[in-house]
Structure formats: C-alpha cells, structure tokens
C-alpha cells in the first residue's frame, strides 16, 4: 500500500487523518481509493473527468508525476505520494 500524505487544508475531508495507506498499482488508482474512502475530498482533487485539477500537484517522493506518467505512474508498497494544492492570496 502506498502512503498518501494529506496536506493540512484537506485533512478536514479525511477525518483529520494526516496520511492514508491506499491500494492501487498507479497514482490514479491510489487516489481513487482515497476518494472512495473519503468522498468529500474528491471535488478538491479531481475534475469532472477524473483528472487532477490544474491547481493540484502530486509527487512521488521528490518527483512531480507530470514529469513521469501522470496518473498512470506506477506505485509500490513503499511509495510516498504527496498532494500539494496551490495556495493563493496574500500580498507582496
């Protein structure tokens, strides 16, 4: 099972869980497993077609999945998936 690190702003949708051990052979399948367990998080991660929203970045270790095979990137039981939502606001 790959470990998904849940960012603090999204933990209210995962019963305040900081991590999730998901099943799946790919990043996409593991995220689907997360959204099946915690349905309220789905709208914050995926668009209507099931693809990651533009403002969400997903990493395996230090690698952005966009530099790999996106949702089709393979995971192993030792993989650590990090979700990084864009943060807007503030002033310069």
From TrEMBL:
InterPro entries: Beta-grasp_dom_sf, Mopterin_synth/thiamin_S_b, Sulfur_Carrier/Prot_Modifier, ThiS/MoaD-like. Pfam families: ThiS. It comes from the Bacteria. This is 9.5 kDa culture filtrate antigen cfp10A.
């Amino acid at each position: 099972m790959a470990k998904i690190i849940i960012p603090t702003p999204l933990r209210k949708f995962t019963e305040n869980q900081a991590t999730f051990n998901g099943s799946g052979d790919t990043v996409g399948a593991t995220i689907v497993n997360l959204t099946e367990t915690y349905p309220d998080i789905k709208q914050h991660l995926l668009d209507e077609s099931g693809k990651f929203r533009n403002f969400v970045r997903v990493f395996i270790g230090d690698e952005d999945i966009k530099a790999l095979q996106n949702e089709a990137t393979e995971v192993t039981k030792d993989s650590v998936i990090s979700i990084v939502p864009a943060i807007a606001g503030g002033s310069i």
